[in-house]
Design a protein that fits this description.
Layout: H1 3-23, H2 27-46, H3 49-53, E1 55-58, E2 70-73, H4 75-82, E3 88-94, E4 98-99, E5 104-105, E6 118-125, H5 143-162, E7 171-184, E8 187-200, H6 213-216, E9 229-241, E10 246-254, H7 257-266, E11 272-275
């Protein structure tokens, strides 16, 4: 073997070893998550209610959270879940930041105030033109509808993919406060709904691969018991916007009441909602 070929083999071997070392490091799941979710979220946004109705909704990130909010369309699954054919659901969401030491989101960290926390917005549109989750005069949101969306999201899209079976689901919802005619994200007429939720936490022992590990990383924090119940606080801002035939529910849920209030003040309230026509 001549020296030139030998040097080339050494370079290739070195590159291979560096790639292998990176793939085995705690940093790799975070980089993979950023790469995959940025592309997947953009694809979902193209089929969202926002795109079809020509309006824009931008939700920022903040300290303690993943760098950007993502978009997911769950039309078919949600229609089946609530028994209303052709109902559309677009979800904008964000979750706790990654621990680069542990190689996964603090979503799994039972010692963190961000444990099992999410924030974002639900956009819902019924095929028959009726306002989803609101009375006929569109000013009174139905707290049960708000709970139904959260329950669908947590069990069907998050905990179910992690491996929680239907017979072990726990979901309790209790309204604690309701304030009407609130000003929020540049619009009057929002209803602020505060509630207590008891639901299965997300932490669990990893027993195989699931697709959600691509975005959150695989759990690596100590586990008290798989999907142990956790008491959560929730704040929702709800409004039906007739020109888009869309019910909008900004939300945050966390075990920490303080995290919820900070999220509303520093993140959700700084969202932009506007017509693109």
């Amino acid at each position: 073997m001549n020296k030139k070929k030998k040097r080339r083999l050494i370079v290739l071997a070195s590159v291979f070893l560096l790639i292998a070392a990176f793939a085995a490091s705690p940093l790799f799941p975070y980089v993979r998550s950023l790469a995959v979710m940025s592309v997947y979220s953009s694809r979902c946004a193209k089929g969202s209610i926002m795109q079809e109705e020509s309006f824009s909704l931008e939700i920022p990130s903040g300290e303690g959270w993943y760098p950007f909010a993502m978009t997911y369309t769950a039309d078919e699954d949600f229609s089946e879940y609530i028994g209303l054919p052709d109902t559309k659901l677009t979800i904008l969401y964000n979750f706790p930041a990654f621990s680069l030491k542990d190689g996964c989101s603090r979503l799994y960290d039972e010692t963190s105030p961000y444990y099992s926390s999410f924030y974002g917005a639900y956009l819902v549109q019924r095929a028959d033109g009726e306002p989803f989750g609101f009375s006929k005069d569109i000013h009174d949101p139905d707290e049960k509808a708000v709970a139904d969306i959260a329950e669908f999201d947590l069990f069907t899209l998050v905990l179910g993919d992690f491996g929680l079976t239907s017979d072990k689901r726990i979901f309790g919802y209790s309204l604690t406060d309701c304030q009407k005619n609130q000003f929020f994200v540049g619009y009057d007429g929002w209803t602020r709904i505060s509630s207590d939720i008891t639901v299965n936490g997300v932490n669990h022992e990893k027993r195989g691969f699931c697709t959600s590990y691509i975005q959150y990383g695989a759990p690596s924090f100590p586990v008290s018991s798989d999907f142990a119940p956790v008491k959560m606080k929730s704040i929702v801002y709800a409004k039906y916007i007739p020109e888009w035939n869309t019910a909008v529910f900004f939300y945050v849920m966390s075990p920490s009441d303080n995290i919820c209030k900070i999220c509303v003040r520093d993140i959700l309230s700084k969202s932009t909602l506007s017509d693109r026509k």
